[in-house]
Each structure stands twice: as C-alpha cells, then as structure tokens.
Amino acid sequence: MEFLCLHRDRPGSLALREELTERHWSYMDGYAQEMIARGPTLADDGAPTGSVHILDLPSPAAARAFAFDEPNYQAGVYRDVLLRRWRNALGRTMWEFPGGRTGGDRYLVIGLGTGAAADLTVPPDRDQLIAYGPLLSDDGTRWLGTAALLRAADPKAARAVLTEDRYADIEVHNWQFGGRPS
C-alpha cells in the first residue's frame, strides 16, 4: 500500500528543525527501501515549510506510525499532518525520474477532491512528472483527491496538472528532492 504524508511546519520552528536534521535523516534511513519520493516543501525564499514523503507500507497503521513517530513531529516542528493512501500511477520512484535531481522548478500539487474521481489518467506530459497518483481512503476504495510532484515553469503551470473545477482546493508548494546531501 502506498501512502502520501505531508508534514507542515509550525511557524517559528526552523531552529528546532535544523537541530533535529540528523535525527530526521536517520529515521528516514530506516525507511529507505519503502521510499517512493521525499523532500521538503519551501517558501519562496527557500525556507522549509514542510516535508513530503511517499512510501510503500504494509498498512494504514504502519503509515500512521511512520507519520507520528517521526522525530520532527514528536518534537513539535510540525503543526499538522496530511496522511492519505496514494496510488503510484507512474510506477516509479523519484530517483527514476528522467529529469534527474536538479534543473527546473519543482512543485508539490495536492488537489482535495469533491464528487466523482478526476485526473485518474496520467497527464500527457509524463516526462515532467516525478510522482503522480490519486489520494484514497484508508481502504483504497474512495477517491479523495490527487497529488503530484512535478517540474514546471511556474506555480500556475504546476497547478494546471489538475482539472481546476473538480477540486474543493488545490495547493501548490515549492518542492525539492530530499535526502542526505551527497
């Protein structure tokens, strides 16, 4: 089962986040085999605003444990968590993205759905998609939205990956590949 976890930073928590960097990375090292994508969301000035992780885990309980045992969450860096089942429509990890780790602006786009499912088919410009798939209920039977990591010219172009009128809300966040610096 695949899950998307978005931890959103609490205002004023940057110093604590920086203090816990190694603990965060060490925790994530324990999930290296399960990781599909990871990385921070960023403000326009480059300051972190959150952290997204997409993983393949055995159950919703395992996903909740991942999200809430995370050191930054335990210490109070994050103000809230969005945790949803997700389906990997591309069938690859971010490390298999043909565009590589750098080059171009990268975004996380999350659409919270209303009504019938939308955007279940992978968009035609697949080469710009790093990760893409529907957000689902815990049992995987109900569509709740869509999430994508992608390279795009700007936030407006990133937002256009989703069908505007099919969502109650669409969020666009600056995002970058995560993990330990090499």
Provide a short characterization of the protein structure.
This protein is α+β, with helices and mostly antiparallel strands. It contains five helices and eight strands; from the N terminus they run βααββααββββαβ.
Largest pleated sheet = 8 strands, antiparallel, barrel
Helix percentage range: 10-25%
**What is the CA–CA distance across the termini?**
29 Å
How are the strands of the largest sheet arranged? 1-3-2-8-5-7-6-4
What general outline do the C-alpha atoms trace? globular
Binned strand content: 35-45%
Q: Name the average pLDDT.
A: 95
Give the C-alpha Rg: 15 Å
The assigned structural class equals alpha+beta
Number of helices: 5
Q: How many E strands?
A: 8
Low-confidence stretches: none
Give the helix/strand layout.
Elements: E1 2-9, H1 14-19, H2 21-29, E2 35-42, E3 48-56, H3 60-69, H4 71-75, E4 78-86, E5 105-113, E6 129-136, E7 143-152, H5 155-159, E8 167-175
Antiparallel strand pairs: 1-3, 1-4, 2-3, 2-8, 4-6, 5-7, 5-8, 6-7
